[in-house]
Amino acid sequence: MTGKRIVILGGGFAGATLAANLQKSIPAGCTVTIVSKENHITYSPLLAEVVGASILPGHVVAPLRQIAGRATLCMVRVSDIDLQARKIHYLGEGPGTIEYDELVLACGVGANLALVPGMARYALPLKTVGDALFLRNRILSRLEQATLQPNVRLRRWLTTFAVLGGGFSGVEVAGEISDFLRSSLRYYPTLDPEDCKVCLVHSGDRLLPELPEGLGDFALRKMTRSGLDIRLNARAERIDARSIELNSGQRIAAGTVICTIGTAPNPLIESLPVDKIRGRVATNPDMSVPGVPGLWALGDCAHIENDWSGLPAPPTAQFATREAKQLAHNLCAAIRGEETQPFRFRPLGALATIGHNKAVAEVFGIRLSGFVAWLLWRGVYLLRVPTLARKLRLFLEWNWGMLFPADIAHLGFSRTRRRS
Length: 420
Ligand SMILES: Cc1cc2nc3c(=O)[nH]c(=O)nc-3n(C[C@H](O)[C@H](O)[C@H](O)COP(=O)(O)OP(=O)(O)OC[C@H]3O[C@@H](n4cnc5c(N)ncnc54)[C@H](O)[C@@H]3O)c2cc1C
What we know:
The protein has 420 residues and is of the alpha/beta class. The protein has helices at 13-25, 47-51, 64-67, 119-122, 129-148, 152-158, 168-184, 213-225, 267-270, 317-336, 371-384, 388-403, and strands spanning 5-9, 31-36, 40-42, 61-63, 72-75, 77-82, 87-91, 95-99, 102-105, 109-111, 123-125, 160-164, 197-201, 229-231, 236-239, 243-246, 251-253, 256-259, 263-265, 276-277, 280-282, 295-297, 302-303, 349-355, 358-363, 366-370. It folds into two domains: 5-111 and 263-336, FAD/NAD(P)-binding domain (3-Layer(bba) Sandwich), CATH 3.50.50; 119-261, FAD/NAD(P)-binding domain (3-Layer(bba) Sandwich). The protein is built from twelve helices and 26 strands. Strand 6 (77-82) and strand 7 (87-91) form a beta hairpin. Helix 1 (13-25) runs parallel beside helix 10 (317-336). The longest helix is centred in the first third of the chain and has 20 residues, at 129-148. The structure holds flavin-adenine dinucleotide.
């Protein structure tokens, strides 16, 4: 059957890849609409590099109209989904509705800032480009404030940056901040490098638990040698305006706390009357949602069993893009009345940078660490970042960064005051 209206809710890794694949294979007469808060995909694996001023914010986003030019894009916030009437309600310039025949949920997850008392108020999340830019600015304003602070204790507080979480995002952002401080301190000659600290707080007994133990140990050794203060088996119990209190009773006085832990279900998913597992939509093996014809889910907001391993697919970009390719195939098959296939993917591996031009990686079962792993990390992300224009800009920017010091301009968001 043709003429179906396919609506994809979310323009992240899952939604954008799905739209790009559908436009190659969609049956004649069908339409694809992406409904998303932003008109771009955010390449989150590179957000830490924006924090550390290694790359510009524009290099980690790519317009959806370039990725899936034949899809219709609606840049609006969806407020409600009516599964009975097959309509979604949105808030844009004004309220509106979009009708669908097939709806794909690809709206990701949010940050859970209620995990630790004080986190919502005093810690800074890293999820969006805005978060990354804000953090970059925060580091710079703390350095500027520290140059004016005569009190040594307060100066140290201003130039101490604590990162919560020793997974990929935490390790990468801690490494980036440490590199950024080292390369920018030449412009702040009155600051003592010994007073500028990055502290990484991790509740587990080793860093990067997703990678083999040896790589986590390598990361710990190298990062400690680079001067990072790494606290393992340490859980934040409370965060206030001045410090983080750990489960051991110790306190870390830090002027900036960054949290990379905790996710919360998207409110849209929470309100949907469908089965969920830990806040994610429980799907059939082919990513359709049981008991709701015409509804599909993928990416971080979905709980999908990987037919290859029998385990739930982890919430990563690597899986979201593979699910999207499989779902494009399944949607077309379902519309044509053909059989759909279960999601099946053998993970390729994982990589993480640890600062100082070093990384750790496990790719196709091969473990790498140090500079070679770092080169591989850059190569992989250069290939994966969407659009040729961005690949080129990223390549130039990375090479530029090897020759010249980090850009320490504080990018203010203030606007000229208008008088009526
Ligand atoms: C800092 C960081 C680093 C990461 N590093 C890696 C890494 O190195 N490797 C890796 O594989 N994964 C990494 N991840 C995880 C990866 O980014 C996610 O798994 C991936 O983004 C999931 O894709 P998604 O499309 O499901 O969700 P998202 O990419 O989050 O996209 C969700 C989309 O839904 C839209 N949306 C949400 N609610 C609404 C609404 N109400 N109305 C309209 N639109 C809405 C959003 O605007 C967005 O476009 C990282 C994540 C972070 C935060």
